[in-house]
Queue: 3 jobs
Job 1
Amino acid sequence: MAGVVVLDMTDSALAVALLTFWRRAAQLVFGGFAGFIGDRLGRRNTLTLSQFVIFGACLALLLLFAENRLSAWQITFAAFVIGAAWTVDAPARSALVPDLLGGRLTADAMLLESFTHSIILGAGGYLAGWLLEYFGTSAGLGALIALTGLNLTLLVWLGREQVPQTNPVAEGGVWQSIGEGIAYVRGNRQMLVVVLVSALINIMVFPALSLLPVFARDVFDRSAIGLGMLNGSFGLGSFIGLFLTHRLRRRFSFYWIFAAGSLLQCLAWAVFALSPLFNLACLLLFLAGVGQASFYTMRNVILLTTASNEMRGRAMSTVALSQGAGLPGELVTGSLAESAGPRFAVSVQGVLAAFATLAIILRGKNNHRSKS
């Protein structure tokens, strides 16, 4: 939704990409501290605080819009604030899962989380486009505030339930906590491969999501409804991909499901960028969503089930750092789309990401075998 509003304000693909650029900047700045904050404040307190910040940022945007004072830089600043809150929220939320259910059900829990995420992504993307098309920006912001307010209310209500936190609270300083988390991941070959591939995809592939408003309007000549269909196709693919992931995990290792999902989304985005037809583009985004489901779910499952109880939160914070590593990717993708067009930017980066991902995965697996 924010991308459509900024594109209408500035008519610039780079300005749209900068929204995600600053969100990733927040991930890069705060990602290393996420595990430490979650351990010190408590994971549920961290979730409540971060959701309160997100709610406040959305409310501020609505008030500015109501007074006709909303500008592109204010939306971009809100993206940074929301990105910072989400960066702290995500590791705490994932690390809380084994506390609630135990390690044996962690994979099932992450599949369920991805299931609800894909529903919200698909339905939310289409709903946002529909609201913007027929009711305007205020309706979109109002719906966003209602959803974040509901989320905050549920967190406060559920916070009354007593949940034991199984890992001991970090006793060292923040820099010691960050260093221990990075060293821990580096010492585990499988975890290192997952984090490296995550960083690569965040640098070269995920910036394409920020350019969907540009594809909808300038490439396929579609309105906000068309953007909603593109987002909805990606979300529907994520939804179906979860069922496929659930079946595949009975036959294949988490590692190879993660690898297949990573490669599928790289290639699907590359071909999407070259699609001459809107309906074909929706199908390709559906496939990208299928890959995203396997990538996202298995990335978290591998990190949560491989890490010890003590290091779980700090290991998950490396995911936020890997997402923050996409910071230069957003800038490069936006600049390349501005100068050479969005088709060229997304297709070339998707192909390069696929080759690099394959090399990292195969090298990591070969090294693992040589040590076994």
Job 2
Amino acid sequence: MKRAFFITTLGVILACCTPMQMDQMEYIDYSVEKQETADFSDLDNFDPLLKDFKDFLFFLDKKMVFRVAAISYQTVDPNGQPVKASGLVFHPLNKKSKGVIDFLPTAHMDSEGGGTDELYAIEGILILLGYTVIIPDLLGSGISKDMQIPFLMAENTGRVAYDMRRAAAQYLWDEFRYVFPYETTIMGYSLGGSAALATQKYYESRHANTVKIKEVHASSGAYDLVAAFEAFAKSGYSDYPAIPNIILAFKRYYFDDRGLEFDISQIFKGDLLANYQDWYGGQYTSPEIMEKLGTNLRAYLHEDFFKPFDQQNETIKSLHPYLKENSVSEGWRPKAPIYMSHAKVDTYVPIECAEVAVKNLRRAGANISFISYPGDHLTVGALWFVRSLIRFL
């Protein structure tokens, strides 16, 4: 009797002390659009700039052979409508993978700028450090290039990234019998920085039983859209044509698709008002759009944009709830540690976005390391990327 009691008690104790196994990700259909085998000699394909830095990237594995595949899969748009998306999977062939990195992509305005269009993306360079890297195109790019980009729409970003993760896991099992690990690291710069935190929030709040986040590396993202709009209104200056993209995304998914009125003439003016459908139709790159817009926001945004909230027109006011909804700077408590950085003089994404996010998330109990660097958006981007490579050695 005592023996049975002892065994039963011991079993209960061991059961309580054994870490709970995480659930498996649900199966998802996917298709391989194209794939090829590559190695270090294909480094030039990632980015032309890397050709000049080959000799300095001594820490990359020159013997690595890997597979890069563009896959497509089913997900949803911001209103829950089914849509097909795509992304890239990089996986080592001749060595054991060190783990998985979810790398969210930087922004582009042209429809041909997605990673799957070229089968390579600069973010995939971490394959040459031995990691499996998955890079979702996000909607409006790759196979979904004909869609309006849901620019900085946080919930949808997380959902599309998660479905890409599921598709990548299934592809790697079918192709290599690779057991996809529960643990992941999330990374992203600029739009990818915002997307990294949006993905962290989505994983931790909705799929904590299928994904465990080790850490998040985010740089130069627009984490707080209210802070971004206020900073741009104060300076009246921008070196990147993102504001119209945000407004057009909100117009499409929050107003047009729901049958609600939205008077774009109360936000855009001048040449932008006359040409926004053409300029933001996917045929122009960011520099080409900037040539058309210029850097003076007052030249193409309604004068009410620069007024205090209570003096703005009703169309601009109607955006504010969605700016807050798609900000990832408050309303949750991140569990995984976050390593965040930003340029002190950033005319693409104001540093106020990071400062407000760090303040709010620390107040919520998040573990955040934040560094602001001298320099602008692009120079800090290069610094962050090199530091990231070194960190993963």
Job 3
Amino acid sequence: MPDLFSPFTLKSVTVRNRIAMSPMTMYRSVDGKMSDFHVMLLGSRAAGGFGLVFPEQIAIQPDGRTSTGCAGIWDDGQKDSLQRVVRIIKDMGAVPAIQLGHTGRRGSEMKPWHGKTQLPASDPDGWQVRGPSPIPHGRRYTLPVQELSVAEIKEIHQAYADAARRAFECGFEWLEMHFAHGYLGASFFSPLGNQRADAYGGSREKRLRFHREALDAVRAIWPAHLPLTMRLGSDDFNEHGIQFDDAVWAIGQLKQHGLDFADISLGMNTDDMKNVPFDQIGFMVDRAARVRQEVGLPVGVSWNLGIPAVADRIVRQGLVDIVFLGRPALANPHWPLWAARELAHADPYSLIPEDWAWWIRSRRGPEGSLGWPPVQTAADAK
């Protein structure tokens, strides 16, 4: 029976454990290019034992960013910075993964600590946001949305394919398409964001067309032996939006178009969400498990899974295949090593590079001298 620290193989790629660093926007890029900061951030997490390491969502077009401080892959000149990230991740023993995306009507933002306000196209750091229909997202996102023409949709699909080519040339070994969190792909599938009357809107079959054609475009470029996955907005938590039954059906359709793995997340196509259990541990796990069982694809999931015993349990019970960690990965660059100690792994230091592990094993010193807190026992938890 696999556990959190068991290897996971998908296509020709074997990840050393079931722990992924989830993509998180850092707002540290310039002209879409990553920097020393990203090498530090991602290299340290790979060194800390994460098996699968993602940078932030990487934009396929300039207006696909969240802000002007976000990374991109729309130009060959951006490959050098991404290759640096790939090299350090591989050197530290992890699999380098990339998430391609387009923010759609949720783009053109200020940095969140500066207010996260959407900037108009007239602002030097803003642009005209685009979406499936001219419907603003709401609340903070109130600026007019330009409806995409069919020709522009085709250009975006080509941009996905071009980005996939560059991603392979950079050395990434796992590709995820980001169609969740209210971004462009998510808004095409949701009736909250898509009220088109053409072949890309109306029935859920038509609303999924954007996904199918984008996936087909990438599948034609991305090597068949490497994993091609998707983060899908699976529930809008709004009676007028995506319902989870729709998502299960959609993933089954996308499996027929070459999808290898489903990363289950929220739709977020409106701020008017109802009864979202954000304070509940692992609240998306049951949904992911249903996809795994009914569609027959391996699945990953995030949202409140930073407690080691919980992350380990959902893998042992066969509910998910990979645990995605966002904020826990930011809070603790050695989360996998810490989790291994908490879960009484036979050799926690086997998760980190051999040279570091040798020093820690060989020069333990007195109890507590390494700076680790004592391992919590069952008695401590009572």
